[in-house]
Structures
1.
Amino acid sequence: MDQVRNSASQLSLSGEPGGVAGEHAAPILSIVIPTYRRNDCVVDNIKRLLPQLDRNDVELIVLDNCSPVPVAQSLESAFGPEIFCKLKVVRNAGNLGLTGNSLRIFEMGLGDYIWPLCDDDAILPNAVEEVVTAIRAGRDLVYLWFPITGGPVHRKPGLYHGLLDAMEAEPNLFFIALSANVFQRSYFLSRLRFGYLYSYSWAPFICPLLSDADNRENRIAVGASPVAESGILGQAEKWSKLDACIGIRTLLELPISERALKCLRSSIDSFTFSTPRLFMDSVVLHDNQRWQLFRLFVERKYGAISLRAAWWLLLAAAAQSLPAMTRKVVRLMEHVLNRRLLLDVEDRFARS
């Protein structure tokens, strides 16, 4: 198996491109940027992308989740009307939310493969060529994954037979960063119902493949070269880690085998932020619902009746009763420790 992976790594992830641009009537790759209210980030990313798109086997689509200022308007202001000869803008009739927009990417474009690029992840030079080369070298791949600088990691590049094979080689949620994923359109569309059934999870876009995790006929490529930098465009903090940790655990409700479930649970446990960090996430937001979510997280992680759960639930109850005092105590601790504990966090599901 290791020999297969090593040879596959050389072939599909660093080999010479197969064929020439224009060989196919339809593009091989559709790059889709789902976005909401981050027009400046989209403009910045398109400036980075345009030098890489002097080819006709790749198309670029911006999926505007009904931003208050239409993204098409910002693009025309930045590049002029001729920009719409180089890309397409699709504007949703209403805001579908983060998960809804992340699933709608599969309906966009004509490419055999879809590469979603988060609006605040800055694409790296030559990334498009890197992705297209890997696709052309292994056209029967159902899924490709590439590193994102500052994002989750997979330390063993190569070919894998099924998602479970790749997850056992790297027991973390390496697929959690949307920009790291390249999907075979036909395969994911055929199982897209799992994405919508589990849209309340934090990663519905991977649910079609997770639901088929044991299928060794699903060939998967893991790349070695980064294709983007994570979250460097716009503000650094844009989502709540508490929301992510609660949402991602709902993936365990997928109808998968015991072996796959055990592997997924191990991967989720490796992803979950520390309970103190999530407690701080609750403290910073003046919102009773945040405390309810923290209690839900504690009960799911430690069990409703356990000493550790009782301790954290008691602390959360005390903090909720005396929120102002709790924040003063935390600020005092920050001063004594000379370390920032409270984080400025937004709810990504409300603002993405």
2.
Amino acid sequence: MIKVAVVILNWNGRSYLEQFLPSVLKNSPDYAQIIVADNASTDDSVSFLKEKYPQIEIISNKENGGYAKGYNDALKLIKAEYYILLNSDIEVSKNWIEPIIEFMDEKPNVAACQPKILDFHRKSHFEYAGAGGGFIDKYAYPFCRGRIFQELEQDKGQYNDVKEVFWASGACMFVRADIFHKLKGLDNDFFAHMEEIDFCWRAKNNDYQIYYHPESVVYHVGGGTLHKSNPRKTYLNFRNNFFLLYKNLEKNQLFVVFAWRLVLDGVAGLKFLLEGNWRDAIAVIKAHYHFYIAIGSLKKKRKDLKHKKVAQIYQRNIVYEHFIKKIKTFNQLQQNKF
């Protein structure tokens, strides 16, 4: 069995593989096997890999099932103690694997862990997708140490502590393979966005822990497959956030949380309209419509899941804290409310 499988999911990302694969090969220890899982790319990604990197194993998925299904299909074929789910648009640094694997070896209850994720284009600052470890508020709005909405902090060492968090970023997530399969992996219906938060919430509901470890550092481009300005991304974020809530919340919280989210999402849709982003406003409406259609299947999933009150959920509304109270950094939040 492989100790560590570094699995890079690729979809038409030849340019990213060409740019960033050398750093992964150079900075990974001998016990880590590098694997590319290709999501039915139509560019020359696969032929490029076969020609330039014949030592790299390629798993060819039959279709582009998105991030969730792409990884689920590939990881079924990989026997390893640990998986590292790594985006193709990430540059890794020296010693990026060892600190986290050593930490997880010592902490068998840790299901997943992420490194410090900095912005490839502005390496002094945290990057949107994960930053210094992920959290959600009581309405399941995600944010990070180092990133609240679009506010990205400069890395000044303020998050250089090993920290239990609520979710680890799917951009670079170390996950214990046996727990990944025990929890049935990622939810295919998410396609992309927030599936890692759903996985981490399920892990926490099963008494596992999620961590951030700053001694491992990577640099993420972000938005390589779906840019943040794309209405498709807006749709997936809003729809999947509702999937996330419905599947994982305690029963006694469902009604109140959903009532508030309807109001808050309505405000978000109105804001999009006032800013002239009518395609994003339509994406919010479509997200709600498709959530209601999916309730039947979500209800079946929910019955099979454990639900409990878990730590690391911020018991305030991050929307109000940021846009009304003008809180810009994680450390300005009320730490006793987690």
3.
Amino acid sequence: MSSETLVLDAQLDTAALFGLYDAHLRAIEEALEVTLSARGQQLVIDGPATAVAAAKQVLGELSDLQTGGTPVGPDDVRFILSKLSDQQRVTEPVPELHGLATRVMPRTANQAHYLNATIHNDLVIAVGPAGTGKTYLAMAAAVSAYNQKQVRRIVLTRPAVEAGERLGFLPGDLIEKVNPYLRPLYDALYELMAPEKAEKLLAQGDVEIAPLAFMRGRTLNDAFIILDEAQNTTVNQMKMFLTRFGERSQVVVTGDPTQVDLPPGEASGLADVTTLLQGVEGVSIAHFNDDDVVRHPLVARIVRAYAARDQGRAGAS
């Protein structure tokens, strides 16, 4: 057993760092099997030597977050703890993102690889379950590229496919009818850009959010283009989209092959293109799994439960 006293910077807000009723400390204790005892700005860590070192690393990263102006929450504790396993450790260099309204960092090795791929490839295809950061990180890369004047505009699109529901008649003009399908893209944009800047860029056309059908017949130069929910494209729609981008443009395609809402018997363009473009120069295919889920930890457990059931059905057939 080992014991070490960690002296925290006097400027740190230990109440926020430790969490409500020391919830952050309790989470670290449970995950690493250590004991943490707080005395003012001092924190005593007791446990196996390797666990004590790991706890110091977690607390150090949480302290750095707070020092950098980011409020520390339960998600941050979970994210940092997840990086401690060999499988999740982020080892490759993390690219710098410029001018974002919120701090964005890859939380897993797959996310770091993906973020680097968006910078070094003309086309990146991201495949994996919900909550793995596919769209959010692509949006962060797009905003950063725009801020550095690497592209003149950002184009965000997704197919307008109903998720197993019948929405019926929607009032309003064409844009108002399709806006519900595009809302997740707006949400990500407003989180990564100051609202007033986002509104200005939308108004002047430097940021465009449109359904996939609006892409037909266009050539998109000097643009960072993101196709979200690509599992709901048909093979022909995917071909149409991928032949739209022109000179000095980057494309990121994201999708979850387990959440296809196409009619029965209709092949998914995402599944088709992932196989078709494997190994093609200039194309990177990033794969995510439930270990990369960075939403509420229950989301990862839900993803695993569905995956296990689907595998069981496949084995029985």
